[in-house]
Amino acid sequence: MIDGAVRASNELTARWARHACTGETTALSGAGLWPLLALLAAAADGPGRAELRDAVGRDPADADRGAREVLEILARGTAVDGAFGVWHRAGLPLEPWWLDAAPGGSRGELSGDPDADRPRLDAWVERNTRGRLTRMPVALEPDTLLVLATALSVDTRWRTPFQDFPFRPRSGPWTGRPRGLAGLNSSGADLDPLALAETPGGPLTVLTVAGLDDVDVHLLLGAPDRPAGDVLAAGVDALDGGHPLRRGAELLAEPVARTAPGVTLTTVPSFTPAPTLRTTTVRFDVTAEHDLLADPALFGLATVSTDDPRGHFPRISRTPLKIGQGAQDVNAAFTAEGFKAAAVTAFGVAAGSAPPQDEAPVLSAVFDRPFGFLARHRPTGLVLVAGWVAEPEEWPEDASSGPGFW
């Protein structure tokens, strides 16, 4: 059961992905952004409060509680770590509500000297992303009065590791690479990791790669001409129960298998008639930077980023405040052994064998063209990181040829 704060965060992820994922390699974390927007909604008034309410999808009166719920999920995860940080300019008068409502975590003062403050905030980022990211994504300006930030990191190993191999797709945009791609394949008797989602935009193949702890990564493949943002948004909706999923044995029906993008159904000689799932995908390492004020209306920031002599956040301080900067840096890497990711989001507030005797069905799922991915906290359903892979890693030049090219 997806609870209110998690569902609201996932809806932001889907909406952001639909807007930001245009077909190039990228990644984003709605789970890193949503708690900050929820806190700002609870602290705002006037038109800005209404805009933030719409972006957050939650009543501002209890949005701060939702923010703490999501941050608690990140903090208590096994494969995911999360942190919240807030730094105020020394001497900025703070309201009692803000002192009580702001989540626990790192709290500190800004001296007003960027050269002195920047190393402390960068060190916080590096410490809370396990070294995958090393800088606070917003600049410290002379008029920066407040910095709000979240950091999350994901580090999980697969229950069933993949095998590396040099992969040369036979068709599509990834053909013609001289060295081939850094391919990954696996094979097993469990068919349930593969699913077909029936969505309004067409069928969507969903492959769940299970982590040893509490995070899974879902690979998403739509029709070749389906927009990247639509694939990711539909994937979030399907995993939240919004679209029906057909799993495992249901896909052994030939008409069903034919409708699943990237999936084929064949029979092979085998010792037993038990079916097999074979998966082929690629290594990827994605890095992205997002300016959250490039389209402020998407995040409910249009009004609260403008000058107003009364300010927009009276529950934080009687000093007039506005959002001066908003940014997120993300990195995500998918390998044969596991998945690692990190995101920092911040606002600057300014101001072997014998011959086989039988045949068995084989479901093959091949991700040999651009696809989406979602890293998801299994116990709660919170989508941690979403992204699109347009450029996978190439097979290393000094690597052996492995088991052969496809």
From TrEMBL:
SUPFAM superfamilies to which the protein is assigned, alphabetical: Serpins
Residues in Serpin domain copies:
6-392
Q: What InterPro entries is this protein classified in?
A: Serpin_dom, Serpin_fam, Serpin_sf, Serpin_sf_1
Q: What does this protein do?
A: Probable serine protease inhibitor.
The family note in this entry says: Belongs to the serpin family.
- What protein name applies here? Serpin family protein
